[in-house]
Amino acid sequence: MDYTNRFSGKGEIYAKARPKYAAGLFDYLQNTMGIPAGSVFADVGAGTGIFAGQLLDCGYKVFAVEPNADMRRKAEEKLSPNHNFVSVIGSDGSMNLPDKSVDYVTAAQAFHWFDADAFRRECRRVLKPGGKVMLVYNARDVKADCTKALASLHSRYNPEFHGFSNGMSHEKCVNFFMGTCDVFRADNTQVYDRQGYVNRVLSSSYAL
Questions:
Q1: Confidence of residue 19 (pLDDT cuts 50, 70, 90)
Q2: CA 86: distance to chain centroid?
Q3: Which pLDDT score is estimated for 163?
Q4: Could you read off the pLDDT of 97-145 as tens digits, one per residue?
Q5: Which residues does residue 206 pair with via DSSP β-bridges, in sequence order?
Q6: Three-state SS at 158
Q7: Full-model pTM
Q8: Rounded to a whole number, what is the distance in angstroms from the first to the last CA of the chain?
Q9: Residue 107 exposed, middle or buried by CB count within 10 Å (0-12, 13-18, 19+)
Q10: 184: closest CA among 54, 27, 44?
Q11: Which CATH class is domain 11-202?
Q12: Who contacts 75 (Cβ-Cβ below 8 Å, separation ≥6)?
């Protein structure tokens, strides 16, 4: 799937409106998995650098791989002062990284746009022996009344809206690993005022 230009012109609003990822996830990486500072990550589909920035805060080195110039520029503006940040023009099927160069590959809020087979091949190429892939999502509570009401509202007024998941599913993530993976979940409560929620909607791929 060619997602390169899907977010063109949305870098500013995306950086402003999209939430960070659960603090519990980074506690898990550092204290449960025991990933030490200095470990090397390739964050693919890095966008405006939200997840990459949180990895940098843990002391990791991050290659932020992003095909979209607008999104990549926002990440560079925010994260370039950190010497562990490297911006890379690349994608799921062509990361533009050397063979066996990273300890971990991550994709945060991005895997559903990828060609899974091409991404798997690239992961195998760039990962060091024993390296791992992590697929990360801020996922809505689809059973919540507010989520159902908002989905109905979007469906009524936006022909580009086909659900909040954009094709992402737990099953697709598990299938990528061919049946061998661990699953970690952490709460990440979001609270919006009116303008904050409007900005969040405008940052979506289906925003008109």
A1: confident
A2: 16
A3: 62
A4: 999 999 999 999 999 999 999 999 999 999 999 999 999 999 776 676 7
A5: none
A6: coil
A7: 0.86
A8: 20
A9: buried
A10: 27
A11: alpha beta
A12: 46, 47, 48, 49, 52, 64, 66, 87
